[in-house]
Amino acid sequence: MTIDDTPPKATDSRSFYRFHMPHAHLDTVFGGDWFALKAEAFARFFGTPLFLIAQTIIVAIWILINVLGFANFDIYPFILLNLAFSLQAAYAAPLILLAQTRQADRDKAHAEADARHREDLHRISDQRQTQTEKQTCLLVEMLQQNTALTETIKALTERLEALTQEVHKSVTEAKGGG
């Protein structure tokens, strides 16, 4: 394993996104330029409460100005207002669909990265399990060797004690008989 192959440390800011890096080269549906970012932001803005409240206020003011006679640029049945809504829908629908497609692409990339991450965790877990099994076998072997050495030491100690007693008995008899 070379230095470049080592996985980033948990404290490394790259480690969180390491499985997302293979997808970094992919261009998004909107693209990556200024217009793409603004188009997606605009599409996301359509679903916000701020947009709905602002649109309701603008429509109410539009209708009040025309009904109360302050201006007569769009009298009842408000054809110009309907045209404005149609124009808004004509641009909003494709932008919203593109934003959903872009989000789906991001979700897919994240799902693939998460799957790779789970596979990596599983592989690491298997490696740890194998390493643990090897260490357990080594410990059992060392324990068996220790047991054999202990039995050998016990046998030698018993033999040494027997020889010591024989020598002691021989010395005692030599002193007592002489």
Walk me through what this model shows.
This protein is mostly helical. The protein has a domain at about 20-135. It has three helices and no strands. It has helices spanning about 35-45, 50-65, 80-175. The longest helix has about 100 residues, at about 80-175. It is rod-shaped. The two termini are about 80 Å apart. The relative contact order is 0.06. The mean pLDDT is about 85.
Poorly predicted ranges (pLDDT <50, ≥5 residues)? none
Q: Report the principal-axis shape.
A: rod-shaped
Structural class, from secondary structure content? mainly alpha
Q: Count every helix, treating DSSP H or I runs of 4 or more residues as helices.
A: 3
Order of helices and strands: HHH
Distance between the amino and carboxyl termini: 79 Å
Would you report the number of β strands? 0
Bin the helical content. Answer: over 70%
**What fraction strand?**
under 5%
Radius of gyration: 42 Å
Mean pLDDT level? 84
In short:
The chain is mainly alpha-helical.
Write the layout of secondary structure elements.
Layout: H1 34-45, H2 49-67, H3 79-177
Helix pairs in contact: 1-3
